[in-house]
Structures
1.
Amino acid sequence: ATRTGPPPREVGTHCPYCALQCGMVLRDTDDGRTEVQPRQFPTNRGGLCQKGWTAADLLDHPDRLTTPLVRDPSGELRPASWQVALDRIADGLRTVQRTHGRDAVAVFGGGGLTNEKAYALGKFARVALRTRHIDYNGRWCMSSAAAAGLRAFGVDRGLPFPLTDLGRTDTLLLVGANPAETMPPLMRHVTDQRARGGRLIVVDPRLTATARQADLHLQPLPGTDLAVANALLHIALTEGLIDRDYVAARTEGFDAVRRTVAEYWPAEVERLSGIPVADLEATARALGTAASAIILTARGAEQHAKGVDTVSAYVNLALALGLPGRPHSGYGCLTGQGNGQGGREHGQKADQLPGYRKIDDPAARAHVAGVWGVDPAELPGPGVPAYQLLDSLGTPDGPRALLVFGSNPVVSAPRAARVESRLRGLDLLVVADFLRSETAELADVVLPVAQWAEEDGTMTNLEGRVLRRRALREPPPGVRTDLAVLADLAARLDDTDPVPAGPGTGPAGAADGPAPVTTPERFPTDPRVVFAELRRASAGGVADYAGVSWERIESADGVFWPCPDPDGPDSPRLFADTFPTPTGRARFHAVRHRPAAEPVCADYPLHFTTGRVLAQYQSGTQTRRVDALRRAAPHGFVELHPDLAARLGVDDGDEVRVASRRGELRAPARLSPTIRPDTVFAPFHWPGAARANSVTNDALDPVSGMPEFKICAVRVERA
Ligand code: SF4
């Protein structure tokens, strides 16, 4: 990237993309470029993937937005001043709320926003807009693991131990996780583990880059991970591998689980999943006889309408073997987005307030309202999960205006064509981004905001480690930070004219009454000031940041939450002595396999599943614009087994059509013997004809609201 503006300098920071948050140095060079160099950090140990290496390429990209865009009467997005753009938004929000009630405005956030921005966005929704409708795209990332972890352990932290423990565990079981492609530097820890004689077992319907390195690859039918876990626990019980002392002393609810898994005979599960009994037995023994073992799940296991129960099945297995809290052992979830962990701790979620507090808990409401300087009765109640929210937009009872920060649901939402039509039906759509995403293309107003290397802040990685993101430079002229945008909007909404609760408010909405004071002081633009407030708001909560300061983060390799005391220790490892549940014990949950929400049939005879490729990230808004990444992964594709391709008369490279009951995608076929012949796969990074989420199912997990991204029924034919 070519540098303009400030003199050459360098900062130690972290990659803008995934939850590994690799350490890197960002440096302006004498010849006017900005370069990235990896730096030693415990998660990446000096490594970066190609996305990290090319992260600076977007800083001065020609597609960079540097002026607000406002849709004119002819339907075109045209450059406008900030005053015009913000006035248009404020007028639109006020009109919608006065006509339809406060809940007629919704906010949609992102798992890539810093902790400060996630916190400010939740506060803005509840204090400035007083709407209950806020949720974020992290709902589609790890919400199933979050819910399962919370109900078992009383806390949701992706990894309750440092990532370095992977390198020292004897048996590592990865379920629906492909870090060799999604987080390549993580594999350095796995390489260590293997070098020490450790065993790696991977459960995945595809022979992925990670599965290729495994001692044992279990290749189940998509959607059968839960049954596989119950069979593993069945075998562990039969073979006497259960840690009975641990179960008796540190858990509750095991009897119901024991009765349930007794039904999961390995031979039955072999018929259901396709995994041979011998492999199930080898896996159970590798876990149950090891001195240390770690079980990790990721999106493959979690993005199902039974995602919470699937994760609970693996948590049950970990608890029965006595793993959580034991050295170099336990259960964990590989969170995906850069701040997927922090993003869910500070109030972006429909049901949560900062500190990972429940929004319907009176004590939590009182604490947070006190920090925000409002009456607890003024705080709205819980909203609805992300997909439900998007699917209600523009409907008679749904919101009529939406503010989107750091997300691109036109590409990333399930059943995306339907979401797109909902967005088109809004009275007002506002998108804050630094590039014109597919969602921004539909907006009435687009606000150009700062990107990663242009602002300070904190991120919380997949280990629950709070990190410092450091600015290398100021935002370019015409660009504002998200915090400044929220402050500007809050100031415009700050009037004494009360907005009625109105017909769209619903039973959970806030009481009618005067609008709260939303002075600029209430929405500070300095991230350091926001973080100080966030610490107070989180104090005493599950995710307690009260003892975390920017100085403390900088004096070490980050700070692990909970950290309630500035002078006390942080918490790299959880559960050594107790679990943060009312009884101090972890809780088993008996769970049963159930079929996919949409079984295959004569018309749609194949299973469809989605995932990522190494060179692209999420909806691709950023990585599709980086030359090196575009060359490495230029377009979408459909992966299918050669036997299936032969039956369909498809050759490698032929364009194929994948159709479900909801829509279709078209992309070149990529033939590979690494996938099951009854399953096809497509990556979800591309819009347009290759949009994988045109096909996916919007069936939701009843607990987490996670859509069933990972399995639906399709037919495939040559296009
Ligand atoms: Fe960035 Fe993730 Fe790649 Fe590390 S693994 S360089 S954090 S995208």
Note: The longest helix spans residues 82-100.
2.
Amino acid sequence: MMSNFPCFPAPNLPAKTILPNDSVASLRKAAKLSFPAGTWPTFNMNPPHVAIVGATGAVGEEMRRCLEQRDFPVGKLTLLASARSVGKRFPFRGEDLAVQELTHESFAGVDLALFSAGGSISLEFGPSAAAAGAVVIDNSSAFRMDPDVPLVVPEINPQAVKNRPRGIIANPNCTTIISLMALAPLHEAFGLEAVIASSYQAVSGSGAQGILELEEQVKAITAGLPFTPKVYPRQIAFNVIPQVDAFLDNGYTKEEMKMLHEGRKILGLPTLKVSCTCVRVPVYRSHSVSITARFARPVDADAARAAYAGKPGIKVVDDPATRLFPVPLDTTGQDTCLVGRIRRNIVLENALDLWVVGDQVRKGAALNAVQIAEIL
Ligand code: 2RA
């Protein structure tokens, strides 16, 4: 539908695995999971019956693609959505699967349920799926701060998947994931203490509606026609909007406070300080985050670049001499987050400035969920 625009949909991806399977093995090793790749001890059946809840949404569709591209061992795939989507069909491994209506009875026989249909659906149906015996991986914010629900980025805290008393594992917010992909290796090397960040968030973070609003406004403005913003509080075309999600009493938005609360939980740093300004930008896909991070120990740019060596899912793209730095189009449709503009901050002691970019539909949502399933 967005064919007039060069960056959406995401470029065609290779039919097969993007993140090599040895990366799955390295994530499992990091999680200290000793069983060999290709076995799935969590599930009684091998391969598992997988359900995607919210299968017609942007993230639900990307989950289906990730399962296929990464050769996730799916015995059966059930696509679930609201009644109005029943009958829509989607391809999966050469089959044409019909969407079924989500009900509390949908999870009989399901081993793994990937949820991406919003917080209220997760709250209502997640516990039913878990009660039916499925491991639930939830992309909404509904359970993220529940102490009995692990909040997992597989490259950072894979071991947390093992402790899931409610049978539910939460996928963090996209901006949190992308920021932490850059911060976690630095934390390991230098001891993270405080973060000040500004995000540049793509309209696909608001789902198909956000993409449509940007496209329609660009068309209307270039044709000299009037339009009324619907999804965003102000015009998003040729503009930036310093509001993502609802405002809270402290003047921050919910999205901004997620960086603090989720960052603390994932990194296991209850005293981590985070101040964030989240901004919506007229980019179709991939979020960028400008970060100033203060550490316990001295840092410099070379040591920071070295800290990323061998870390899965994050790559340094950083050579000011040749104007090499990551931009959102570089990560669109890609699995790896890119970090650049790494420099010592000249205001604060032991602090760095950096710029990280990642595809928020993939690593910020669908891919992260499938990676969690891979290490169960
Ligand atoms: C956004 N955080 O970009 C959302 C997507 N999860 O608005």
Note: The longest helix spans residues 174-190.
